[in-house]
Amino acid sequence: MTRRDADPTTQGRTQTLERTQTQRPRLYRVLLLNDDYTPMDFVVMVLERHFRKSEQEAQLIMLAVHHKGQGVAGVYTRDVAETKVAQVTAEARQHGYPLRLVAEPEAGE
Fold it and tell me: Is the entire prediction scored with pTM above 0.85?
């Protein structure tokens, strides 16, 4: 913007801009829930492929799901968490498995 094109209501005056404080986005945990039909090797594959877990990490999470009823696959912003839930659920259904995932807000936020 050249000086000639400046807003006539602010000529000769200093304009004050407000600074907005940014906040970190709320984080969501993606939880895998136990069922009696989805094979353990499928759960491990999902954790490796969609959540970028090592084989050892995926095995530990899968065992937590099996023994405790649920396990944390990852922590993401809301949009990413919901997308991962949708993608994994769709893949599980394609293979005929009832695997359930949920995204819930991280505690303390």
Answer: no
